[in-house]
């Protein structure tokens, strides 16, 4: 990294960086280095150096008569040396900054006990040092953007009367203004005209949030350049036949100027055509800059920026399905007036919680499109439903509405009246609370959300269907309503899926409070406003401190010494996990005898977890391990004060145990440990004999003997601390609750059985 720019750089979450000087964010280190070497950064660095040097030789002057011209001040200070510049206070003309030739001159000026000008006593001070701040030029619409900053939004929302009204306010704040819509229309027309020149017969079709009803001020402009007719046109022109559709290109197709003279649209590859599109944009569309062809994306595009409005956009040429799903989203927004406010609210919430919107393109967050589909799915599946399923819509579509796009059935009615009114009259306030409630425990990885069917398809049955062959299953499975083999959330990783759930959980909890439901009479924040504050998720996941089970000395059987008791408990813990709960359980080497190491320390934790779940390598030194390779009931050696194991849980052995216990033969209930082992075995069998590829849970357990003073029996205990990857925190919670009861009970049984 360039040394000079180092102090300006601030690391961001997810590996990005921000340059404080230029106020830009970049995705990674190479981009940061490019930026630091780039023109803009270098220019600002130079500017800062110049400003700082100016500051060091300038004085702040006041006390002169109002209206004194700069030239008079300049003449006065010339007696000490050369005056480089005089900047008058523009508004009131009561002070001036006088830039002097150098520091020596500054010293001279400041050492003068008194300065007088035109009979007035001047006050002359060194100029205040200010941090250099770059103020980017104000772009058109920036006043609107300022209105949309989170504090301003919060202020406006608090003024509303209830949550439903807050949601309407949110839409009004974010949707396009008349002028923004008009600007986009003009731009589309301009693009259309220019591209018609070069690709006669082509049509420029806007799609995405500019037109689907979920417009947000400043959102990108998605354009699809439909070249179908241009291909026909070219073919017929080459064959010298006149086009049927009346298109009358101004450029002769075979003239040197025509782009089409170089390329055969029917056989050209997507990258080839996009390079041409980029060239046209770059050279022929006024006001467009930063043109860049992104050819590696799932849907290759040419990105651009409109200078005056700073509107960003992209043009694609093979995105007919997106045009189709745009019309479909539009249909749903027209079908029920609650759709828009609910989607706007969920999108804004997700943005504030960093769950949606991938700032650098790509990335593991949900896209706005995916999030919108999730809200629509929720409205299809609530009771009674607000929106019909895609299958239902298909049945409603008439002959002229039948459409197959890229091989997928995209038939649905044009008229939203075909969706029919919903019998569900719930308020937006309740819908939002219900949305969070539904998704707080949703099995995003275990099923496939289908808007087509309006239900969660079970993974096994989906995987046996035709559409599944190319469907990338992952931590979040949301099927596109038309392109059925496409998982719209394939980019969402486990961590984001879990965070989404946790955020829904804390939102659902908040929605049950009066603070959500009622306007504050004391001017406090209420309703949606709290929901939009970046949340504190830690409160929902169990913390390391909470993941401890203490076994008091009262569990000590007979006259065992503390050491012997610890050894027996350790053997018991192994027995319960391995034999009773059918888990994989293996001792780790580094847990042994490391008294000072806290399991809660992240490095220790990750080391423990990364050490895997295999038995540690046999290093031939038995004395290291008090328990490994030793018969469980064998003679005990002197041992250390702590032992650590890795554990993998393969089946849901903590669920439904009571039901299975009841089914077992009562005669067998004599030995509780055996009975419980049988219950676990049956649960495992029910879930399939073979172990899944990945365990359900992985964690580390450390048993530690704790006694400040062994004569203080009250405070002598063995603690079992659990450490796990934060991604498993939620799933682990239920298992841990189960263990809190089950483990001490089983250990008591085990220890009782050890008494000779
Ligand atoms: P915004 O631009 O405000 O984030 P958007 O809906 O325009 O929202 P984009 O990412 O710009 O989102 O995508 C434009 C459009 O492309 C979407 O509205 C949708 O029609 C289509 N689209 C985007 N992502 C996908 C996807 N993964 N699968 C199918 N269609 C998609
Ligand atoms: Mg968009």
Describe this structure as you would to a colleague.
- The protein is α+β, with helices and mostly antiparallel strands and 756 residues long.
- The protein folds into five domains: 1-56, no CATH class; 59-130, 2-Layer Sandwich (Alpha-Beta Plaits); 175-321, Beta Polymerase, domain 2; 337-387 and 422-538, Poly(a)-polymerase, middle domain (Orthogonal Bundle), CATH 1.10.1410; 544-754, no CATH class.
- Helices cover 38% and strands 15% of the residues.
- It has a five-stranded antiparallel β-sheet with strand order 5-6-4-8-7. Strands 9-10-13-12-11 form a five-stranded mixed β-sheet, with helices on both faces. It has a five-stranded antiparallel β-sheet with strand order 19-23-22-21-20, with helices on both faces.
- Helix 8 (178-198) crosses helix 10 and helix 15 (428-440) crosses helix 17.
- The structure holds adenosine-5'-triphosphate and magnesium ion.
- Adenosine-5'-triphosphate is lined by residues 207-209, 212, 216, 219-220, 222, 322, 325-326, 367-369, 480, 486, 488.
